[in-house]
Every structure is written in structure tokens, then in C-alpha cells.
Amino acid sequence: MKSVITGSGIALPPHVVTNDQLSRIMDTSDEWIRTRSGIEQRHFAVAGQGSAELGSMAGEAAIRDAGLKPEDIDVVVFATMTPDHVLPGNGPLLQKRIGLRQVPTFDLRQQCSGFLYGLDLADSLLRSGKFERVLLVGAETHSGFMPWDQGWKVVLGLSDEEPSDEEKAWNTLSRDRTVLFGDAAGAVVVEKRENGAAGLLRTRLYTDGGGAEALTMHGSSFKQRPFVTKEQIAAGETIPVMNGREVFKTAVTLMPQAVRDVCADEGLAVADLDLVLIHQANLRIIEGVQKQLGLPSEKVPHNIERYGNTTAATLPLLFHECKQNGLAGPGKLIAFTALGSGLHWGAALYRM
Questions:
Q1: For the domain that residue 122 is a member of, what is the CATH number?
Q2: Residue 12 backbone zone (phi > 0: left; psi -120 to 50: alpha; other: beta)
Q3: pTM of the model
Q4: For a designed S-S bond to 26, which of 95, 146, 171, 200 qualifies (C-beta 3.0 to 4.6 A apart)?
Q5: Which residues are identified as catalytic?
Q6: Are 14 and 54 in contact (CB under 8 A)?
Q7: pLDDT tens track for 295-338
Q8: In terms of residue numbers, what domain contains 306?
């Protein structure tokens, strides 16, 4: 028995924001952002649009692509670090929005590795014999982290009025993080298949809480009362913080090793891979992983330049595009890999 991806879909919110637009509300430039991240633009959701809605749109598209109807889905796995609410999770919201049966839903909080962990969970659920079809979703609306005030009108093209010097200075304080992220969703339908070569072959997942402080958010903590304060908001502590140098060094070491591990588990060499789909956090990290694996650029596609880092959505978004453009065709051997806050990381080996 193998777990086979039978459909995929994506959802992109309508606002496309370029680096030049961001440079109007903070001290940055297209050249500064491209040099450090490779990002040229990103999508932002409309006001009031959350990750549950984007995830539902991607989920509906994946169900259609699989030739199924909503009532055919047996269980939902929803990965996000930007849920609509602290409670409930996004799973129930998607279940209602799509009109699924009263199926169980799982909400995952593995951040950038959420889709990878979700793929392993989907495989386990199918192998348990309890379910036949899983809807796996990765969706984010990072725009909720952005601390901009009047700058939002400028970014979304709703105003030509420049923000004050004071607001521009405030926006600049978090530019190293806020320029990196975008909003998007991707989803796949995973079904049980008894025969055939296609399907998930192997996964390797890891967690090291010793690296938790490398990528975290100190505000909005239930260790304190209340869980968020006006002082934290004023200090920008509701924006994630990152030790970029440490994350880079860790990512270009651990992701390649995880890929080597899953290949070795199947008696394969890295050179046997047709594609390596890497979490789209930073183009420099993607290039570093590619170099460590010794693979040509045509085997390591990327789309971070168009979408930025969409966390749990990056892998299904990239996978869907590779399907659409023929890179991920029948018989192709694909490795997925990701690393994110936790630290959580790993790799999965999949045969199309």
C-alpha cells in the first residue's frame, strides 16, 4: 500500500506587492531585498481574509483536481502558523467552508515544516486503515504580523500619501523579517493505493528544541497575564524574531543530510533524484542546499522570487507549479525538504 497524491491546488490572494512598493514605507530597496533573499514580490490577502479561507480555496481546487467531491474526503490535516484564531483551529473552519462531512480534522503547528509533517501524518492515517482519502493543506496569512499603520494603504496601492518619518522609521526596525513573507495556500489530496510504483516512499522527521530561540516570537504568550500587552505591541514583540545567520547555517547542513538519509533508506543516491523541492525561505538557503547536494539547478526549482516565504504553503505551492509545467511528471523521483521554527526539519521521498 502507498499513499498517492491524486490532486493538488493553490490559492493566491489578489494583492501583489513588489519590493519597490515596500521601499515607500521603510528604508529598503529592491536591490537590498533581492540581494539578501532573492525575493522580488509577494502576495498579501485582502483585509479580513485569513489562512482558513485561502486554505479552503486551495483545498477545493485540490479536490476538483483529484476528480472528487467534498463528501469523498475522510479526514483533514491543516498546517499553519498563522491561524484565523487562537481557537478554534483552522481545520473546523475549512470543514464548514468547503462543506465536508463531519470528518475529523488535525491542526499542525510545525511552521515551515508543517506540510512535510502533514504528509507523514497523512501517510500514517491511511496506513492505519481508518481512512481512504486525506485533504492536506498548508496556508498562511503572514500579513497579520506586519506592524504597518498608514503604510498599508501605500503598500496595497490605496493611497499615494507617504507615511510620516516616524512611521517609516518604525517600519524599518523589522524590515529584515517583514520583507521576507507572503500569503498563500497549497493543498493536496492523498489517497490509499494498493498497487503501483507511485506514492510516498520514505520520510525522515526531526525536532531539536535546543534551537527554538533561533526563530520564535516572544509576544502573545500564555505564560503571562494577559497573553499579550500593549507594551509588547508597542515594542514590536508580536513580530517573529530570527537569528538569520544561525538559521542559514543550520538549514544548509540539516536539510541536505535529511535528503541523503531518505535516499539511503531506499538504497538510492542523491543523483537519482529528478527534483528536490526545498522550503522557500530564502534563495541563498536554497542555493546552499543545492550546493551541498551537488545537484544542477534544473533539479532544484524555486519560486520564492514571486511569492516570498509562505511557510507551510511553500512546498505544496511549488509542487503544484512543477506538476503544471511538467517538471513533476509520471515516474519522477522527488525529495521534499524543509526546516523551520522548533527547530523542526526533515525530508520525504516521493515517486510520481
A1: 3.40.47.10
A2: beta
A3: 0.97
A4: 171
A5: 112, 279, 309
A6: no
A7: 999 999 999 999 999 999 999 999 999 999 999 999 999 999 99
A8: 199-351
